[in-house]
């Protein structure tokens, strides 16, 4: 698993932002701090709550110059619908090939539902040099991050 002090693994992924574009992490370091919020699946209760909480607290991240991205293994088309239905004001990244969740060490199976290799609920903050300055990973898909702690980490990463 990626830890604080590690270089953030670089990746290129489809980005659902109302359209479908492509994002390469290393190309966005000028927009740092970057908040990478991994979530298991769009349209599920806790994931919807989490992404809507990021939406509702976006001013906290904008105030410190942070850029937020949600990341799941859903298709970019499903993620665009999820964004629209929940009026999300930040892009979502599609990791259908599971490369990002593997690189960050946040892959898990939902054995109860027979679903393999989705993202654990996790948040990483990446600074402008590409270093991970904050990492939170939960083995409990029902847990949510401490949003104030994430905002504080983003503010610290800006310095």
Describe the overall structure.
The protein is α+β, with helices and mostly antiparallel strands and 159 residues long. 30% of the residues lie in helices and 29% in strands. It contains five helices and nine strands. It has helices at residues 45-56, 58-63, 76-86, 99-104, 147-158; strands spanning 12-16, 20-24, 34-38, 67-72, 92-94, 107-110, 115-119, 121-126, 132-138. A seven-stranded mixed β-sheet has the order 2-1-5-4-3-8-9. The two termini are 25 Å apart. The mean pLDDT is 95.
Topology diagram in text:
Layout: E1 12-16, E2 20-24, E3 34-38, H1 45-56, H2 58-63, E4 67-72, H3 76-86, E5 92-94, H4 99-104, E6 107-110, E7 115-119, E8 121-126, E9 132-138, H5 147-158
Parallel strand pairs: 3-4, 4-5
Antiparallel strand pairs: 1-2, 1-5, 3-8, 6-7, 8-9
Active site: 47
Protein name: Redoxin domain-containing protein
Domain Thioredoxin: 2-159
Structure annotation, total helices = 5
State the helical fraction. 25-40%
Mean pLDDT: 95
H-E string? EEEHHEHEHEEEEH
Strand content: 25-35%
The strand count comes to 9
Structural class: alpha+beta
Shape: globular
Largest sheet: 7 strands, mixed
Q: Compute the separation of the termini in Å.
A: 25 Å
Q: What low-confidence regions span 5 or more consecutive residues with pLDDT below 50? A: none
Strand order of the largest sheet: 2-1-5-4-3-8-9
Output the radius of gyration: 14 Å
Active site: 47
GO molecular function: oxidoreductase activity
Domain Thioredoxin: 2-159
Pfam families: AhpC-TSA
């Amino acid at each position: 698993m990626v830890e604080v002090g590690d270089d953030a693994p670089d990746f290129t992924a489809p980005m659902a932002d109302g359209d479908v574009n492509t994002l390469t992490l290393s190309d966005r370091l000028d927009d740092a701090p970057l908040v990478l919020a991994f979530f298991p699946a769009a349209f599920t209760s806790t994931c919807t709550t989490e992404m809507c909480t990021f939406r509702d607290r976006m001013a906290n991240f904008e105030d410190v110059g942070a850029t937020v991205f949600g990341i799941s293994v859903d298709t970019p088309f499903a993620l665009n619908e999820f964004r629209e239905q929940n009026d999300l004001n930040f892009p979502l990244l599609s990791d259908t090939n599971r490369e990002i969740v593997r690189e960050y060490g946040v892959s898990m199976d939902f054995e109860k539902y027979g679903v393999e290799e989705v993202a654990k609920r996790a948040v990483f903050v990446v600074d402008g040099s590409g270093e991970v300055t904050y990492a939170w990973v939960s083995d409990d898909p029902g847990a949510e991050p401490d949003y104030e702690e994430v905002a504080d980490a983003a503010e610290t990463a800006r310095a």
